[in-house]
Design brief:
The chain has ten helices and eleven strands. The protein is of the alpha+beta class. The protein has two domains: 81 residues, no CATH class; 198 residues, Aminopeptidase (3-Layer(aba) Sandwich), CATH 3.40.630. The strands form three sheets. Strands 3-4-5-8-9-11-10 form a seven-stranded mixed β-sheet, with helices on both faces. A two-stranded antiparallel ribbon has the order 1-2. It is globular, with a radius of gyration of 30 Å. The structure holds coenzyme A. The site of coenzyme A (COA) has 16 residues, from β8 and α8.
Amino acid sequence: MSDPSERLSESMPGQDNGLKPLSNADDLSLGNPSNAELSRIMSRAGIQLANGFPLDDDEGDEEVDEDYVAVGQEEDANEFPYWFRRPPTHHRTKLDELHPFVQLLSASNVEDCVAVEDAFPEQERCSRDKFIYRLSRCPELSLGLFTLPLKDDDKPKPRPTLVAHIVATRTSEPCVTDRAMRLPSNWKDERWTFEDGQAVGHEEGGGTIAIHSLAVLPEHQGKQVGSTLMKSYIHRIREALIADRIAIIAHDHLVPFYESFGFESRGPSKCQFGGGGWVDLVLEFGDHQESS
Ligand SMILES: CC(C)(COP(=O)(O)OP(=O)(O)OC[C@H]1O[C@@H](n2cnc3c(N)ncnc32)[C@H](O)[C@@H]1OP(=O)(O)O)[C@@H](O)C(=O)NCCC(=O)NCCS
């Protein structure tokens, strides 16, 4: 059997032996004496080592570190591969740092939505009046992703900040149409609005949920906020069994983004909103819901 102090040196952090000690084993540095010096200190103190780590020779000691695993000298360290292959500490993503939570929107969020909608080029933005209409008429089809700013000791509790939103209405059409996107002039007085015999705006009972806006505050784009919100939205609608499909229009460069959630491209859209040039995308629930 080799000298335990030699084995400590072999396994100390920073040694290029391919093995990674546990993070709490870093404390073995004891103020960073050299490995040889540390080995001497531990050897004199009678601390036995197995593969570079202290043995648990005091069975009566109740204060056992949860991460501590005793490895007998006669045992093969290969029986404890997890000791050496522990995955690296989880690094928090930029999304984690927002401590995000999702919540339905309401008419009280109109100004927040107007701010988030700035993510779009001007001609593609949903107007304030449309937000008032959609969040008053069918708030259950919306979803917001919020972050709660840290509380400053001297200041009152901060209000959650809307980072991203999805706002939608229902239509009886299989795709998003310009009519579905319109703002009915008399929506406050009339439950239904027809123009030329066709429904305009939100159609209660329509089997298609037409998403009119998915937007993320520019400073929070590229942090998985949009995809997290969209996944959450799809999950909610699917689980609630409240629609046959979700439809959206998008420009070409975002087609793969929507396809990654299961939307299928249906080719060029007839929508002329914001100058046109859109692709119809549809996520069908029908088969899944019947079989589940
Ligand atoms: C499009 C948008 C909603 C995406 O949200 P996001 O939080 O920035 O995107 P995510 O971080 O979740 O991106 C996930 C993936 O989507 C794709 N993606 C995101 N934005 C993209 C873009 N502008 N072009 C192409 N692909 C894009 C990427 O593949 C990305 O993967 P990656 O992180 O490995 O690069 C957001 O950028 C936005 O609000 N844009 C302006 C408004 C808009 O165009 N809305 C869509 C209307 S159809």
